[in-house]
Amino acid sequence: MVKICCLGAGYVGGPTMAVIALKCPDIQVVVVDITKSRIDAWNSDTLPIYEPGLDDVVKQCRGKNLFFSTDIEKHVSEADIIFVSVNTPTKTRGLGAGKAADLTYWESAARMIADVAKSDKIVVEKSTVPVKTAEAIEKILTHNSNGINFQILSNPEFLAEGTAIKDLFNPDRVLIGGRETPEGQKAVQTLKAVYAHWVPEDQILTTNLWSAELSKLAANAFLAQRISSVNAMSALCEATGANVSEVSYAVGKDSRIGPKFLNASVGFGGSCFQKDILNLVYICECNGLPEVANYWKQVIKINDYQKSRFVNRVVSSMFNTVANKKIAVLGFAFKKDTGDTRETPAIDVCKGLLGDKAKISIYDPQVTEDQIQRDLAMNKFDWDHPVHLQPMSPTTTKQVSVTWDAYEATKDAHGICILTEWDEFKTLDYKKIYDSMQKPAFVFDGRNVVDSEKLREIGFIVYSIGKPLDAWLKDMPAVA
Ligand code: NAD
Ligand code: UDX
């Protein structure tokens, strides 16, 4: 029986390995992590992450050919294939701080593998890493190898949260990069055989190591660029009376462009886009390509602009002050169908409103108060370091309250900001909400999920990203 061990039981390691176990009953899969609370949760009825369909997959294989453990060294030494799916956050200090990927966790994983390995291993980069990382990892492994042969493969993951199981069951492609030596190609074929249990062979792409590593950064940069492009257009739509939904529909009808990923929003979030683009920018700078670096940097700048533009719109519409006003925030996760809040635009929007002394009442169907208070107290880029998975004493902000009920969050509020596109926000009883709010009552829809015309009929003043402005909003222009 082939044995797989995966280092890192997070949003990627957990679902990916659960699907491999489900699709490959002849393979034993053990997922290990340094964070005991995460492993305990994977072994319990309440999994550490919310992902539609995940519970079902885990239940079908856990205890059969899928295991979660903290006994890292034992399972690494027994494995034939080791996936490394640990954090690769943005560096917070030192050379490249605020841009470069912090490979501390990756390097310590590689050193540990070299220390405990007693037989040949295929080591798979599952984490998103800077291009050429495999070269560094190879050096670490071979300098400490005791005669053991290590083959490094790059197998970046393309799943999106909220649809991870669907994406893993039916990926657009699986990408495997390896050394162009006979041993390297043999390792590529071994990993390909794992995916071939359920992925059609023509969708399993094989490339050299550097192409695979760079393709992951490139794919995220292209995806994020689409959102920044449509968000840039949304600002122009508001200034001119064009409607961004109509513009993106018309643009996306061009088969060369395509309709997906063109939804204007309060800004993109999530653990990947910003981190990976900053990493790409840093790599370009290090390779003497400042023009290329500046091109991609602009994607992040527009995203930051979009978030601050939204805050400015809220404040300016409400007579230029939100001090002591109650603002209800509906949705805190970075997108629907996940409880993940890493780099969610809600953090920057809430911090902006808090900076203007608003009182915020937050409701998200999947995010706990502890998580929200922690996110609002944390410094930029600190969130992706495993230490923050450990329980810590909460620093609560008194200006922020968190509830499990949208009606309670909006009661007595002056305004509502919709920051995640949860389906349930479309069907709330907005008449009931309006009646319980201070007047004039505002809705700032950062995801274009509500029917703005219906809300206007009720009496709300409504702002929708990139849509023609109410007379009220036109009279109170936001200063960008
Ligand atoms: P995560 O924080 O959810 O999980 C990482 C896990 O690794 C944590 O549980 C941490 O405790 C563990 N870990 C850290 N060092 C370890 C070590 N030495 N040994 C064992 N475990 C260790 O992160 P994630 O979202 O799963 O992302 C992991 C990687 O995958 C990152 O490089 C990320 O960029 C990439 N990625 C993420 C996504 C996504 O949607 N989240 C998608 C594609 C790629
Ligand atoms: C992304 C990539 O899609 C995935 O391939 C990669 O493996 C990891 O990074 P993820 O961050 O989980 O996945 O979610 P995604 O669906 O890409 O959304 C990212 C952010 O962009 C969210 O905040 C989302 O709301 C926003 N978004 C997405 C928009 O604002 N508009 C869109 O049209 C699409």
TrEMBL record:
<dbReference type="Pfam" id="PF03721">
    <property type="entry name" value="UDPG_MGDP_dh_N"/>
</dbReference>
<feature type="binding site">
    <location>
        <position position="33"/>
    </location>
    <ligand>
        <name>NAD(+)</name>
    </ligand>
</feature>
<dbReference type="InterPro" id="IPR036220">
    <property type="entry name" value="UDP-Glc/GDP-Man_DH_C_sf"/>
</dbReference>
<comment type="function">
    <text>Involved in the biosynthesis of UDP-glucuronic acid (UDP-GlcA), providing nucleotide sugars for cell-wall polymers.</text>
</comment>
<dbReference type="Pfam" id="PF03720">
    <property type="entry name" value="UDPG_MGDP_dh_C"/>
</dbReference>
<dbReference type="GO" id="GO:0006065">
    <property type="term" value="P:UDP-glucuronate biosynthetic process"/>
</dbReference>
<dbReference type="InterPro" id="IPR014027">
    <property type="entry name" value="UDP-Glc/GDP-Man_DH_C"/>
</dbReference>
<dbReference type="InterPro" id="IPR001732">
    <property type="entry name" value="UDP-Glc/GDP-Man_DH_N"/>
</dbReference>
<dbReference type="InterPro" id="IPR014026">
    <property type="entry name" value="UDP-Glc/GDP-Man_DH_dimer"/>
</dbReference>
<feature type="binding site">
    <location>
        <position position="161"/>
    </location>
    <ligand>
        <name>NAD(+)</name>
    </ligand>
</feature>
<keyword id="KW-0520">NAD</keyword>
<keyword id="KW-0597">Phosphoprotein</keyword>
<feature type="binding site">
    <location>
        <begin position="8"/>
        <end position="13"/>
    </location>
    <ligand>
        <name>NAD(+)</name>
    </ligand>
</feature>
<dbReference type="InterPro" id="IPR008927">
    <property type="entry name" value="6-PGluconate_DH-like_C_sf"/>
</dbReference>
<feature type="domain" description="UDP-glucose/GDP-mannose dehydrogenase C-terminal">
    <location>
        <begin position="328"/>
        <end position="452"/>
    </location>
</feature>
<feature type="binding site">
    <location>
        <position position="342"/>
    </location>
    <ligand>
        <name>NAD(+)</name>
    </ligand>
</feature>
<dbReference type="InterPro" id="IPR017476">
    <property type="entry name" value="UDP-Glc/GDP-Man"/>
</dbReference>
<feature type="binding site">
    <location>
        <begin position="127"/>
        <end position="128"/>
    </location>
    <ligand>
        <name>NAD(+)</name>
    </ligand>
</feature>
<feature type="binding site">
    <location>
        <begin position="272"/>
        <end position="275"/>
    </location>
    <ligand>
        <name>NAD(+)</name>
    </ligand>
</feature>
<keyword id="KW-0560">Oxidoreductase</keyword>
<dbReference type="InterPro" id="IPR036291">
    <property type="entry name" value="NAD(P)-bd_dom_sf"/>
</dbReference>
<feature type="active site" description="Nucleophile">
    <location>
        <position position="272"/>
    </location>
</feature>
<dbReference type="GO" id="GO:0003979">
    <property type="term" value="F:UDP-glucose 6-dehydrogenase activity"/>
</dbReference>
<dbReference type="InterPro" id="IPR028356">
    <property type="entry name" value="UDPglc_DH_euk"/>
</dbReference>
<protein>
    <recommendedName>
        <fullName>UDP-glucose 6-dehydrogenase</fullName>
        <ecNumber>1.1.1.22</ecNumber>
    </recommendedName>
</protein>
<feature type="binding site">
    <location>
        <position position="38"/>
    </location>
    <ligand>
        <name>NAD(+)</name>
    </ligand>
</feature>
<feature type="binding site">
    <location>
        <begin position="86"/>
        <end position="90"/>
    </location>
    <ligand>
        <name>NAD(+)</name>
    </ligand>
</feature>
<dbReference type="GO" id="GO:0006024">
    <property type="term" value="P:glycosaminoglycan biosynthetic process"/>
</dbReference>
<dbReference type="Pfam" id="PF00984">
    <property type="entry name" value="UDPG_MGDP_dh"/>
</dbReference>
<comment type="pathway">
    <text>Nucleotide-sugar biosynthesis; UDP-alpha-D-glucuronate biosynthesis; UDP-alpha-D-glucuronate from UDP-alpha-D-glucose: step 1/1.</text>
</comment>
<comment type="similarity">
    <text>Belongs to the UDP-glucose/GDP-mannose dehydrogenase family.</text>
</comment>
<dbReference type="GO" id="GO:0051287">
    <property type="term" value="F:NAD binding"/>
</dbReference>
<dbReference type="GO" id="GO:0005634">
    <property type="term" value="C:nucleus"/>
</dbReference>
